[in-house]
Amino acid sequence: MTNENFFENVIAVVKQVPKGRVTSYGAIAAYLGVKSSSRMVGWALHNSISSKSKVPAHRVLNRNGLLTGKAHFGNDRMQKLLEAEGHIIENDELQNFMKVFWDPSKELAL
DNA sequence: GTGGTGACGACAC
DNA sequence: GGTGTCGCCACCA
Question: Whole-angstrom distance between the N-terminal and C-terminal Cα of chain A?
Fold first, then answer.
């Protein structure tokens, strides 16, 4: 699924994240084969917002299930969106992260 | 062209 | 187990 840019791949994966599920930067990076460059995923997501793309970036958390990107997404907005999908956010952390974790490498079966 | 920075992750101490 | 450091690669000053 290697598109033109790493950026495009990140967007494509995030957009495929089912509602009620979340994934991590590292998972996406690993799925794209650049697991060591998890920072690039965050960079791509940041661009996705700047591009006004309809990307559910609020479903992308860090490896700890923390809403690290909430500051860039809109503090309350990111948590509210997740809660709207049935998630439980406490102290900026997804309580059932392991339960709702969506691994592209497994779900998309690369 | 160089240096610093960043929505992270893994490892070392 | 918390903190520190490095790595990773692209972008901005």
Answer: 9
Sites in chain A below the pLDDT cut of 50:
none
Q: Is the CB of A42 under 7 A from strand B?
A: yes
What is the Cα A92 distance to its own chain's centre?
A: 15
Within residues 72-91 of protein chain A, the ones with CB less than 7 A from nucleic strand B are: 72-73
Using CA atoms, how far residue A75 sits from A5, A63, A67, A84, in Å, is: 29, 19, 9, 15
- Whether CB of A34 is under 7 Å from strand C: the answer is yes
Query: A33 near A105, Cβ under 8 Å?
Result: no
Return the structure tokens found at A44: 């791509």
Question: Could you tell me the pTM of the whole model?
Answer: 0.90
* Structure letter (DSSP) for residue A32: H
